[in-house]
Write a structure and sequence with these properties.
Number of strands: 21
Number of helices: 11
Helix content: 25-40%
Shape: elongated
Radius of gyration: 34 Å
Largest sheet: 5 strands, antiparallel
Strand content: 25-35%
Strand order of the largest sheet: 5-4-3-6-7
Distance between the termini: 74 Å
């Protein structure tokens, strides 16, 4: 009988017994060992199992299985000084993980931890744990600047060079580029797919294969683009998605109007920032003879063109949202749609879903109706221009939009009414400064 087979028998015997601890003689008897050579092998195997920590001895010299740690799963958050915290429940305090107990986990990894010290409410000390297992890596690719090795260095190391991560949280890691796949020039901004993660003796080392050259470090806009690529945000649409978008007409036809209410005779405007390209909502307000307000809200009917199960629909589902960056927007659907037929551009008919409401002077909605419609916005307004009309009474702006001024004044009145209603309901206003 081999030691490995005997180990399995010993563990099975202890696990299947009602008792928790045994003398050497009791284990020998339980396994049916009667010969002296069998007992000698048992003693040798038990000694090896103790060294491997698969069994432990009690204070009375009996043999038992070690207590298995109760593992808790959470998200590891690394600190640049080496230690970290694991979030298990957003409503509970994080578990502190000392530098020597991180198990080479990286920021964002899903880990299993064992609690080694429980929280002490009297001393305000939180729980402490150690990472036992890394269950899912959060970082699978990194964008950064490529530093090329010389030919001699490459021959000696079998590496193209190193990648300096753009993400400052990754600054403590040295990322090596294996000598396979794409070979960029020095100074390139690249995307490297990780194949090896930190381990014993290589706690700050990563290795991967360069999959894409994004550009050169001196190219304009490269900082933003590298962030986009590193986060896996697709910057291009697949050909089949673009083909579907190209098949959508540039203008609406009579058949598109079937079953829709025609609101093209109403004064309706979009109000957005000066840089907005996709105008997806529009409004109209007027004061009624009975003192109430009429409010119409119109949302671009994208679903008429992006039909369920289509390539456009699947791509939009994968993207989830448009991504707004400091110098660009990465749309959820191709720009031919988002900036074209699905954008409520001024003075052209567009398909929408509308909600028309009657609101009394206290802010109570008396009635409402939701329906498919077609509208034609009168103007493309900006927040700046509307504020100049309502707040500054700027003569030039008011003269330019003379026919719309009464509607904006009614909007201002209704805004005040609805704002008062929000405050009465206990709504909280969050003030924040937004960077341009």
């Amino acid at each position: 009988m081999t030691k490995e087979t005997l180990k399995e028998k010993i563990i099975f015997f202890i696990e299947s017994s009602r008792k928790k601890s045994f003398s050497m003689e009791e284990i020998a008897e339980g396994l049916g060992f009667q010969k002296s050579e069998d007992f000698k092998l048992l003693v040798q195997t038990i000694a090896q199992m103790e060294r491997e920590q698969s069994i432990v001895f009690t204070k009375k010299g009996k043999i038992k299985l070690p207590l298995q740690p109760i593992l808790i799963e959470g998200t590891f958050r690394a600190n640049e000084r080496g230690f970290g915290f694991v979030t298990i429940d957003p409503e509970e305090d994080d578990v502190y993980i000392p530098k020597e107990a991180t198990g080479y986990a990286m920021d964002g990894d899903t880990v299993a931890i064992d609690i080694v010290k429980t929280a002490d409410a009297f001393s305000d000390r939180g729980a402490e744990g150690k990472v036992v297992e890394i269950r899912q890596r959060a970082t699978t690719q990194i964008a950064g600047e490529f530093i090329a090795y010389t030919e001699d260095e490459m021959a000696e190391t079998d590496l193209y060079g190193v990648v300096i991560p753009k993400d400052k949280k990754m600054n403590q890691f040295k990322v090596y580029a294996a000598a396979e796949g794409v070979r960029p020039v020095d100074g390139s901004i690249v995307l490297i797919e990780l194949t090896h993660y930190p381990e014993k003796s290589y706690a700050t080392s990563l290795e991967g294969i360069i999959k894409q050259v994004i550009g050169h470090k001196n190219d304009p806009g490269m900082d933003i683009l590298s962030i986009v690529v590193a986060n896996g945000i697709p910057t291009q649409f697949p050909d089949d998605v673009l083909s579907e978008a190209d098949a959508v007409p540039d203008s609406i036809s009579d058949k598109d109007l079937i079953g829709r209410r025609d609101l093209r005779d109403q004064l309706i405007v979009t109000i957005d920032g000066e840089d907005a390209k996709d105008l997806d909502d529009a409004v109209t307000v007027r004061k009624l003879d009975n003192g109430n307000y009429f409010l119409g809200v119109h949302i671009a009917d994208v679903s008429y063109y992006v039909t369920e199960g289509s390539q456009l629909d699947r791509e939009a589902y994968e993207r989830g949202t448009s991504v707004y960056l400091t110098d660009r927007v990465i749309p959820m659907i191709p720009q031919r749609l988002s900036n074209g037929i699905c954008s409520l551009n001024p003075k052209v008919p567009r398909l929408t879903m509308s909600c028309e409401m009657e609101i009394d002077p206290t802010g109570k909605i008396i009635s409402h109706e939701i329906f498919p419609s077609v509208i034609q916005t009168t103007e493309r307004m900006t927040y700046t221009a509307v504020n100049q009309i309502l707040e500054e009474q700027d003569e030039e702006t008011m003269a330019r939009y003379e026919s719309l001024v009464p509607m904006f004044q009614a909007m201002g009145e209704l805004h005040e009414i609805l704002e008062t209603m929000r405050i009465r309901r206990g709504a909280i206003s969050f003030e924040d400064r937004e960077a341009k």
